User: Fold this.
Amino acid sequence: MGKEDFNEEFLCSINFLGYTTMLQIFRLTKEYFSEKKIGWENCVAVCTDGAASMADYRLGAVAKIIEVAHKEMLFTHCIIHLEPLATKN
Assistant:
């Protein structure tokens, strides 16, 4: 399998009302996967903004996703959030 066999696509945009918790993020993502008949085995990586509700390795949404997807999945921090730091004078 070569690098041309991979592509990156925007999956979805989900509106969250009010305070966003790890459980809400995971529940709505799980509902979306179920509605679209997407298997968790297709989730090979997650990229987040680093917020605790997403990134906490024990309680964050990523930890819950790893539980239902697979242990070897990739987890990265979105580099675009570092862009403002790199462009400051």
Q: What stands out?
A: The chain has four helices and two strands. The beta strands are 45-48, 74-77.
